[in-house]
């Protein structure tokens, strides 16, 4: 129990109000943790390129880093960028929360081992585009095998742990095993077999290590845009949950605007593009209605990222690829949290991917603001790329979505 000096309560007189109506916001447990770690903290909607961030020395990790405290993620998802110097490794650690890594730069290995009760130990190699998970309460260290730096983007569900327990010893030195999240032989084997997710029957691969999500083949999906490709990383122990995705938009195409809960962070894996975000109360046509100042835009390249639904969630957001290569994105999951994103319209039970005309949460191309298409085509022209959006989609709408999908 922490001792703190407290003032005596002062009762109001007559009809005066007790206490204050304006006061300094208090830090959460996770914010205190970030402050104690001593590295910079980025705040905002997104980052054009995480390779350009100013990193600080991180003695506890044996690395350099910067926290990403993105708008809309407070209390649900922790993120950071971490650099391992040439031919160095991170300090061994374990923690109570789930953690996931995407490799931006570098090559090396990871060592993962459990306590003596199971004796499981794993080693595997990583490269740019590798994505893998670290289960709770297992020891691990990341080893840079090259003479250049290695750079990672990490996501986890640490904020809830620190906000609830506020006890570093409990979080970083907990021996409770979680056998449902960690296993022996084959646990980190790569897998290419496509399966259907139990809840929405879209394509998934069940694995805990993906060697290269930048160049891997993606199956056709079509739900977010014509020609859209997608897989769900089906992490062991979370087969029935929305656990992010790896997706790709064809050259010259873009998504329908849509809304859902906060928590999704899109990491740009290849290509370049931009994302619009705006509060739902400004409707389908914020530019046409004179509310363009309420629309936020973030541009990104490979290594950049954006919080897809900031401002407390339920914001419209829309993604555009404007380069000469397909835009490939990863909806980077950080583990379960208190407010799961079901991608369902809770009033209708219909997939959020369906248009609002169908009871979903996406703006049909017929209903979007004319500025969206005009600006997209202008940016494509600047890049020397032509739009490949089917013209009829603006008059007849997107193909009807499966109302049972999500």
* DSSP, total strands: 22
Overall mean confidence score, pLDDT: 94
State the helicity in percent bands. Answer: under 10%
CATH topology of the largest domain: Jelly Rolls
Give the N-terminus to C-terminus distance in angstroms: 45 Å
- The total tally of domains equals 2
Percentage of residues in DSSP E strands:
25-35%
The topology string of helices and strands comes to: HEEEEEEEEEEEHHEEEEEEEEEEEHH
Major sheet: 8 strands, mixed
Given the structure, what is the number of helices? 5
Domain Cupin type-2: 81-153
Protein name: Cupin
Pfam families: Cupin_2
Region (Disordered): 387-406
Molecular structure report:
The protein has 406 residues and is mainly beta. The strands form four sheets. Strands 1, 3, 4, 5, 6, 9, 11 and 14 form an eight-stranded mixed beta sheet that branches. It has an eight-stranded mixed beta sheet with strand order 2-20-17-22-16-15-13-12, with no helix packed on it. It has a three-stranded antiparallel beta sheet with strand order 8-7-10, with no helix packed on it. It has five helices and 22 strands. The N and C termini lie far apart (45 Å).
């Amino acid at each position: 129990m922490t001792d703190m000096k407290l003032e005596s309560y002062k009762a109001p007189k007559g009809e005066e109000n007790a206490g204050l109506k304006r006061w300094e916001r208090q830090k959460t447990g996770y914010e205190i943790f970030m402050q104690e770690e001593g590295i910079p903290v980025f705040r905002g909607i997104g980052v054009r390129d995480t390779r350009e961030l100013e990193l600080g020395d991180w003695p506890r990790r044996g690395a350099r880093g910067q926290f990403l405290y993105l708008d809309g993620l407070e209390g649900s998802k922790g993120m950071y960028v971490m650099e391992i110097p040439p031919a160095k490794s991170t300090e061994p650690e374990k923690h109570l929360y789930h953690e996931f890594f995407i490799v931006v730069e570098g090559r090396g290995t990871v060592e993962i081992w459990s306590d003596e009760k199971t004796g499981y130990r794993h080693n595997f190699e990583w490269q740019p585009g590798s994505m893998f998970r670290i289960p709770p309460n297992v020891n691990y260290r990341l080893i840079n095998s090259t003479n250049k730096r290695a750079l990672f983007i990490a996501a986890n569900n640490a904020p809830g742990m620190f906000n609830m327990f506020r006890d570093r010893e409990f979080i970083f030195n907990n021996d409770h095993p979680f056998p449902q999240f960690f296993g022996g032989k084959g646990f980190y084997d790569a897998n290419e077999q496509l399966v259907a997710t139990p809840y929405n029957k879209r394509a998934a691969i069940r694995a805990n290590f993906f060697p290269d999500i930048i160049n891997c083949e993606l199956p056709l999906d079509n739900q977010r845009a014509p020609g859209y490709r997608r897989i769900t990383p089906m992490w062991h122990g979370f087969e029935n949950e929305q656990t992010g995705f790896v997706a790709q938009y064809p050259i010259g195409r873009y998504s329908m605007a849509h809304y859902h809960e906060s928590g999704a962070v899109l990491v740009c894996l290849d290509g370049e593009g931009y994302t619009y975000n705006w509060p739902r109360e400004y409707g389908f046509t914020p530019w046409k209605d004179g509310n363009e100042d309420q629309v936020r835009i973030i541009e990104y390249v490979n290594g950049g990222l954006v919080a897809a639904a900031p401002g407390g969630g339920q914001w419209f957001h829309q993604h555009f690829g404007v380069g000469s290569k397909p835009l490939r994105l990863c909806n980077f999951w950080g583990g379960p949290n208190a407010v799961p994103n079901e991608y369902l319209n809770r009033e209708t039970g219909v997939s959020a991917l369906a248009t609002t005309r169908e009871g979903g949460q996406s703006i049909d191309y017929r209903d979007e603001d004319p500025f969206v298409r005009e600006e997209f085509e202008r940016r494509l022209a600047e890049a020397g790329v032509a739009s490949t959006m089917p013209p009829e989609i603006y008059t007849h709408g997107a193909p009807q979505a499966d109302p049972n999908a999500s």
